[in-house]
C-alpha cells in the first residue's frame, strides 16, 4: 500500500499498517504543511515544545522502524489500475518509476489534485467563489469519518475537516484511518467480523493469569465469537482462531523484556537529541551525584 505524505497523518498511518504486516511505502516530498511551523508547542509528549526538524526525524524514524519504506519523492498522480486486473492503483511519481498499490492513503493537507479522476463524478472537489475568481479545491468532507471513500481502496487521512487544524489531530486521524484499513484487509482475507478488530498494545506478563492464561479458555472464548453461519470450513476456522489467540499472547511481555525495550527506546530517542545537549546534561548529572565520568561509567574503584 502507498501513503501519500510523510507528515504526522501519513507517518502515523504508516506505523499502524506496517506493524500489522502490510507492505507500506510512504512518499514524502519534504513539504509537509508542518514544515511551515516555526516551532511546535502543543504536540503531546514534548513539554518544552519541539523543533520541526527533530519531530520530522522522529516521525520518519518511527515509520521506518515499524517497517515502512520512506521514499523522498512526490506523487504526481494516482489512477486506477487496468480494468479486469487485480484492482488497485498506479501511482505516478515525480522522479521514480510508477508503482502499483492495492490501497492508497492520502495524507497531504493542502493538495488533493493528484487524486483527480479517481471518482467518476469528480465529487471529491468543490468550487468556491472568491470575488471575481472561482477556486476549486479538494472537499475536506469527501471522506467518511473513518477515512473511507466511494473509491474502493482509497482512504483519506488528509485533507480532512476534522484533522487539518493541529498536528496532533492529524496524527490521530492517520491512526484512525489506518485501523479502518487494517480491519478492512482482514475482512477481505476471510476474517469474521468478531476477529477483524485491530489492537496493538503491550501488557505485562504478570497480568496474564488465572483462567485467561489457559489457551483452551481462549479457544472457548474465540469459538463463541465466531458465528455458526460464518463462511469458514473447519480448517480455516481453526487457523483463524489460533492466529487470534497467538496475537493475544504475543502482546504480553515479561519484566526483562519491558526493561530491554525501555532502554532501547531511550537510546533511540537520544539519536535525535543534540550531542552537546547530551554532554551538558551528563555533566550536570555527574556534578549532582559527585561522580567522575569514569565512575559514572562503572570504571571507578
List the helices and strands and how they pair.
Elements: E1 2-4, H1 8-19, E2 25-27, H2 52-66, E3 69-71, E4 75-80, E5 89-93, E6 99-101, E7 104-107, E8 125-130, E9 133-138, E10 154-158, H3 167-188, E11 203-204, H4 215-225, H5 234-250, E12 252-253, H6 255-270, H7 275-289, H8 293-296
Parallel strand pairs: 1-2, 1-7, 2-3, 7-10, 11-12
Antiparallel strand pairs: 4-5, 5-6, 8-9
Helix pairs in contact: 1-2, 1-3, 4-5
In angstroms, what is the radius of gyration? 23 Å
Q: Would you list the SSEs in sequence order as H and E?
A: EHEHEEEEEEEEHEHHEHHH
Count of DSSP H/I helices: 8
Global outline: flat
What number is the mean pLDDT? Answer: 90
Strand order of the largest sheet: 3-2-1-7-10
Beta content: 15-25%
Q: Into which percent range does the helicity of residues fall?
A: 25-40%
Measured between the Cα atoms of the first and last residue, the distance is: 56 Å
Structural class, by secondary structure, is alpha/beta
- Uncertain parts: none
Q: Total number of β-strand segments?
A: 12
Largest sheet: 5 strands, parallel
In short:
This protein is an alpha/beta fold. It has 8 helices and 12 strands.
Structure, explained:
By secondary structure, the protein is of the alpha/beta class. Helices cover 37% and strands 16% of the residues. The strands form 4 sheets. Strands 3-2-1-7-10 form a 5-stranded parallel β-sheet, with helices on one face. The protein has a 3-stranded antiparallel β-sheet with strand order 4-5-6, with no helix packed on it. Helix 1 (8-19) runs parallel beside helix 2 and helix 1 (8-19) packs parallel to helix 3 (167-188). The protein is flat. The N and C termini lie far apart (56 Å).
Amino acid at each position: 500500500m502507498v501513503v501519500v505524505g510523510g507528515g504526522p497523518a501519513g507517518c502515523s498511518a504508516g506505523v499502524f499498517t506496517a506493524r500489522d504486516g502490510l507492505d507500506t511505502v510512504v512518499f514524502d516530498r519534504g513539504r509537509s504543511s508542518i514544515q511551515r511551523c516555526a516551532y511546535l508547542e502543543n504536540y503531546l509528549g514534548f513539554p518544552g515544545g519541539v523543533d520541526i526538524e527533530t519531530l520530522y526525524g522522529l516521525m520518519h524514524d518511527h515509520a521506518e522502524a515499524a517497517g515502512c519504506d520512506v521514499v523522498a519523492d512526490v506523487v504526481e498522480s494516482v489512477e486506477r489500475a487496468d480494468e479486469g486486473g487485480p484492482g488497485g492503483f498506479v501511482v505516478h511519481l515525480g522522479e521514480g518509476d510508477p508503482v502499483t498499490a492495492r490501497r492508497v492513503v492520502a495524507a497531504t493537507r493542502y493538495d488533493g489534485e493528484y487524486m483527480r479522476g479517481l471518482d467518476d463524478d469528480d465529487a471529491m472537489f468543490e468550487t468556491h467563489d472568491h470575488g471575481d475568481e472561482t477556486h476549486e479545491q479538494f472537499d475536506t468532507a469527501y471522506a467518511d469519518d473513518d477515512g473511507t471513500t466511494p473509491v474502493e481502496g482509497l482512504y483519506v487521512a488528509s485533507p480532512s475537516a476534522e484533522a487539518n487544524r493541529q498536528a496532533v489531530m492529524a496524527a490521530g486521524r492517520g491512526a484512525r484511518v489506518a485501523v479502518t484499513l487494517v480491519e478492512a484487509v482482514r475482512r477481505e482475507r476471510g476474517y469474521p467480523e468478531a476477529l477483524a478488530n485491530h489492537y496493538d498494545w503491550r501488557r505485562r506478563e504478570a497480568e496474564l493469569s488465572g483462567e485467561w492464561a489457559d489457551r483452551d479458555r481462549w479457544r472457548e472464548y474465540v469459538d463463541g465469537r465466531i458465528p455458526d453461519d460464518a463462511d469458514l470450513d473447519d480448517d480455516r476456522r481453526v487457523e483463524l482462531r489460533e492466529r487470534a489467540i497467538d496475537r493475544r499472547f504475543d502482546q504480553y511481555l515479561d519484566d526483562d523484556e519491558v526493561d530491554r525495550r525501555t532502554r532501547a527506546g531511550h537510546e533511540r530517542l537520544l539519536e535525535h537529541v543534540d550531542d552537546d545537549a547530551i554532554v551538558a546534561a551528563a555533566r550536570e548529572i555527574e556534578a549532582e551525584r559527585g561522580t567522575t565520568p569514569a565512575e559514572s561509567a562503572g570504571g571507578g574503584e
